[in-house]
From TrEMBL:
Protein name as catalogued: Endoribonuclease YbeY
GO BP of this protein: rRNA processing
Chain sites annotated for binding Zn(2+): H132, H136, H142
Family matches, as HAMAP family: Endoribonucl_YbeY
Protein's cellular compartments: Cytoplasm
The species this protein was found in: Rothia mucilaginosa M508
Record's cofactor remark: Binds 1 zinc ion.
Gene name of this polypeptide: ybeY
Length: 173
């Protein structure tokens, strides 16, 4: 079983009732049991050892914007950020990779908006973003068309195997 640590922040509310309800609903869509099973599935698929560590932080938009500015010098909250630790790469069935994969930060309100725009649930979007973050921690990127085709192909395959249905549509920004 993968070593997964979740850190769930409280949603930031207080703007107006409709916005507060949306933010609360987005945080309520975070299902750590589903995300844990997804991570375990992705680890098996990418041949990561059972003792591989991953931290997932669930944060509000203010915190995500702070981290986004600090690490990327970009304003605004984003959907997911990944911070690889041990520069792990996918292993093999005979020699699985092991160590500290890294940290993934998810922002449920951004995920909820993206999921709605793409026509799927917030939980589906969070699954997509978690898988995306794992692949970034394993060194995959989507800076070129070739890299994107490879990364998104693996991402789609992992999600379809896990969900047992077509994967949610990727958000490109």
């Amino acid at each position: 079983m993968a070593e997964i640590e979740f850190d769930c922040e409280e949603p930031a509310t207080g703007a107006d009732p409709a916005t507060d309800a949306f933010i609360r609903e987005s945080f309520e869509a975070v299902d750590t049991e589903v995300l844990t099973r997804l991570v375990e599935h992705a680890f098996k698929r990418m041949h990561l050892a059972d003792d591989t560590y991953l931290s997932i932080a669930i944060v509000n938009e203010d915190e995500m914007e702070r981290v986004h500015i600090e690490w990327m010098d970009l304003p605004g909250a984003t959907d997911v950020m990944s911070f690889p630790m041990d520069e792990l790469e996918p292993g093999t069935p005979e020699n699985p990779s092991s160590g500290m994969l890294g940290d993934i930060i998810l922002c449920p309100p951004v995920a909820a908006r993206q999921g709605a725009d793409a026509g799927h649930s917030t939980l589906d979007e969070l699954c997509l973003l978690t898988t995306h973050g794992i692949l970034h921690c394993l060194g995959y990127d989507h800076g070129t068309a070739e890299e994107e085709a490879e990364m998104f192909g693996i991402q789609r395959s992992i999600l379809e195997e896990f969900l047992g249905r077509p994967a949610p549509v990727e958000t490109r920004h």
